[in-house]
Amino acid sequence: MDTHLTTDQLITVIPGWLAWKLVHNTGASFGLLSGDANLLISINCSAILLILYLYHRCVPSLPAQLGFSLLIGGAFGNLVSRLCFGYVVDFISFHACPVIFNIADVEIIFGLFLLLCLHLKKQ
């Protein structure tokens, strides 16, 4: 994405709904902890270890395995980006949402949502 967009350039994909906008995010969601790369890398590594621990602690069903896989994939993708570049490349912009995010963020959200739904279904 870095090779096709310039920083803060907006390309409309679906008018009034979806656009691409390149942002080099040195923080977490909503720019929290911006510029504190070491802390974010530590949090990211801790989250990955926690997810792996929870995965091995339970005997996950196939949908739960998918949820855990999405979480690990998203967390690992953002970690690699942070380690290689010092920031995460965000580029997906929905007009109704003030946050710009990336595919790894989508994986994390869907993984959390799936695991939450499965947990609530057990209750």
Give a quick summary of the entry.
The protein has 123 residues and is α+β, with helices and mostly antiparallel strands. Helix content is 53%, strand content 18%. It has one domain (10-122).
Question: What does this protein look like?
Answer:
- The structure is a single chain.
- The protein is an alpha+beta fold.
- α1 packs antiparallel against α2 (62-85) and α2 (62-85) packs antiparallel against α3 (103-122).
- Helices cover 53% and strands 18% of the residues.
- It has a 4-stranded antiparallel beta sheet with strand order 1-2-3-4.
- It has one domain.
- It is globular, with a radius of gyration of 16 Å.
- It is built from 3 helices and 4 strands.
- It is a multi-pass membrane protein.
- Pfam families: Peptidase_A8 (PF01252).
- Keywords: Aspartyl protease, Cell membrane, Hydrolase, Membrane, Protease, Transmembrane, Transmembrane helix.
